[in-house]
Amino acid sequence: xxxxxxxxxxxxxxxxxxxxxxxxxxxxxxxxxxxxxxxxxxxxxxxxxxxxxxxxxxxxxxxxxxxxxxxxxxxxxxxxxxxxxxxxxxxxxxxxxxxxxxxxxxxxxxxxxxxxxxxxxxxxxxxxxxxxxxxxxxxxxxxxxxxxxxxxxxxxxxxxxxxxxxxxxxxxxxxxxxxxxxxxxxxxxxxxxxxxxxxxxxxxxxxxxxxxxxxxxxxxxxxxxxxxxxxxxxxxxxxxxxxxxxxxxxxxxxxxxxxxxxxxxxxxxxxxxxxxxxxxxxxxxxxxxxxxxxxxxxxxxxxxxxxxxxxxxxxxxxxxxxxxxx
Length: 326
What we know:
With 326 residues, the chain is of the alpha/beta class. It has 13 helices and eight strands. Strands 1, 2, 3, 4, 5, 6, 7 and 8 form an eight-stranded mixed beta sheet that branches. The longest helix has 27 residues, at 238-264.
C-alpha cells in the first residue's frame, strides 16, 4: 500500500457540528462519502459518534448517513441530548450531587440513529476511545478486532454512548461482556485522548505496516479562548473546579497531540502536506460542551463556515490528494 489515509475527529459535545460541517464540505467537493476516502477513522466522544455515523451501512451496503445528515443531528437532537427535568436539576443540586444530564435523552437519540448495527458492520475501520474506570486503563473499540472476534464486537449505539460519557455530564456506562460473566465501566475517552489523532496514527502503523506514507486529517471542535482568571480560580475548591478542569484536560490533550503530529508528519520533500489540522478559535459563541441553544448552534456553524473559507486552499489540496488515492 502506497499511502494510508487517516481521519481523526476530536471530542467536544455540541461543538461536533464544526467538524461535521467541514466533512460535509469535503463530501461536497469530492462527491463521494467520507467512508470511501479513508482507511481508518478515529473518534472520541462526539467525534466517535461522527466516526460511527459516517461508517454505518444501510440495507444496500452504502453509507447510511452523509456528513450533512450528521450536521442535522446536532441541530435537531442537541436539545434532546442535553436536556433535564426540573426534578433532575433539583436532585442533582444543579450539578454537584449527580451527573448534569440523565442518560435517557442521549440513549434514545443513539438508538434511533444506530439501531441494531454493530461495530463489525462499519464500512471502513474505526478506532473509538473510552476509558475503563475500574481497571483504570484506556479502552479502544477497534472494528478490526470486532470483525474477527465477537468478544470485541458491540452495538454501535453502545460504543457511541461509552465514548461520550463525559464525567459530570453523563453517568458512566456499564457494558456487559458477550457471555455476561463480567462488565466494563466506561467513560468518555476525552480524559486521555480528546484528540485521538495520535492513537489513529499508531493504529494505522499497526494495521498497515507496509504503507509507504501516511496522510492524516485531524478535525478539532474549537480552540478554547475563554480565560480562567487567576483571582477567581485561586479560591476554587473541588466543586468549582470540576467542569473547568474537564475543559482544561480536554483542550490540553488536544493541543499536545497536535504539537506532536506536526513534528511526526512534516511536509514531504516536494512540500506536499501529510498532516492537516482544521481547528477554529472559539472567540465567539459558548465553548461549553452542552450549549445546544439555537443561537449557539448558529454561531458554531458560522465558525465552521469561516474556517472553510480561510482554509479553502488547504481543503482543495487535501481533496486532490484524496482523489489521487481513491
